[in-house]
Amino acid sequence: MTNLDIAQKAVLREITDVAKDAGLSPSDFEPLGHYKAKLMQEAVSRLSENPKGKLVLVTAVSPTPAGEGKTTVTVGLSQGLQKIGKMAIPATREPALGPIFGVKGGACGGGYSQVLPMEDINLFFTGDFPAITAAHNLLSAMLDAHLHFGNELEIDTRGEMWPRTLDMNDRALREIIIGLGGRNNGVMREDGFVITPASEIMAILCLATSLANLKERLGSIVVARNKKKQPVYARDLKAHGAMTALLASAIRPNLVQTMEGGPAFVHGGPFGNIAHGCSSILGTKCSLGLADYTVTEAGFGSDLGAEKFLNILCPRLGRGPDGIVLVATVRALQHQGGGDLALGFGNLRQHIKHLQSYGPPVVVAINQRAEDNLEDHATLIELCAEVGVRAITCNPWGGGGDGCTDLAKHVVEITSTPSTFAPLYKSEDSIETKLHTIVECVHGGSGVEYSDKAQKNIEWFEKNGFGHLPVCVAKTQYSLSDDPTLLNAPSGFKLHVREVRLSAGAGFLVAICGDIMLMPGLGKSPTAFVIDVDDNGKITGLF
Questions:
Q1: How far is C-alpha 178 from the geometric centre of its chain's CA atoms?
Q2: CA-to-CA distance for 248 and 229, rounded, in angstroms?
Q3: Which pTM does this prediction carry?
Q4: Phi/psi of residue 285, nearest 5 degrees
Q5: Could you tell me whether strands 391-394 and 539-540 are parallel, antiparallel, or unpaired per DSSP bridges?
Q6: Through-space distance between the first and last CA atoms of the chain, rounded to whole angstroms
Q7: pLDDT tens digits, residue range 500-543?
Q8: CB 90 within 8 A of CB 96
Q9: Are 190 and 156 spatial neighbours (Cβ–Cβ below 8 Å)?
């Protein structure tokens, strides 16, 4: 059966019962139909003030295009913890429409380790993505209205400006001309779209700690520079109040359920390769306020989502994880090694080395696939033992929580003793030092090469007080480098930074590397070809 077949055969519990099991009272949440709910603002404030549970981060090796089951392991591990008597909640990201209709399909986990209702979560869900898109484009519209009515702020329209956004892969919108058709249609200028998961609004929503903090962050967005090369903020356009109103519901975490009926939070959806790739701070804090264990995932490999979780999100969360689960598959490591599993282990070794830099204990979860040879699992277990890390085979797809109890028991064991945590760099380090540290410690490379544009970007950021911000590296997920064809664990390479963008409201800089695009395009045979709905409203083709 497919993931969708399994999800559609599941018997869902009423969300009111799921909420009760999580320790929520009826006044703590707003049901959205039978199987979804949003926490009320009062409950968000109360729960986020007392994040008492343990935090487990799930990340992965460098993935193949199909992914290695990181979300599946996240959900399966939370179900496994429930099986051994621990209150556990997975806190995952919301899927974006781009990959759903593009390459990867859905993003709710898989098999018997999914968050449900799968179709709803994959398609619009509770309206958070449309709200983020609307808030982003409201700012775009207000910026152009300001230009149309005289440009009182003396914005330099020849420089980089706030783009537009759309939650769909559409390469034709990367670079466009707006304002055509005469004086009544606005100022003609260059513009472009980024995909909604790459929007700074998405990052802000996921990093905000309250409604007031959300509004403050929205006001701090730099939309352009004036003719004196000074920053122009969203608050200068008086846009942040209305933007906050559009996001007042979206900031509240979403409550759903796992395949086995346990509570789950699904909230926020930044991409891991072009944004910071983590679910919301508020969703994580609320889960920590309810559960013994919160199991969260960060996008793509540890060189992307986990690095950003640990160096961008954790300092704002005020703590690091108690343990880290690194997902590996035989398929991914054979791919990295050109068919040779032992050679491809070099990729896993570099991810282990990176994650051990932070302090919390690391365990490797070998995500079992139907075609696996179990002798390969034994080989991986031995190779991991040689570098001082335990590897445990799990089967979240086929076994649900029962397939993850060994992993769950080990996670309880390694998180029972408090661990230390420290990010890789300090805020006072220069931008170049931060990037160099990431390349050496995370990617295994030897340095950074900057384009002239990137150098000028950095100089302006340092001059205008943004040099203290952490750096979010936007690069390919298929390699530890910025070259998707450079597999395994390359060394001696340099990271090629073609430009650096400012996300002042989110509170980080984005280093755009290699050929990465902030607006992907659909392939020749996208997943959209097979997604359909019958006359009874039953959806098919999601996976």
A1: 31
A2: 33
A3: 0.96
A4: -65, -40
A5: unpaired
A6: 10
A7: 999 999 999 999 999 999 999 999 999 899 999 999 999 988 87
A8: no
A9: no
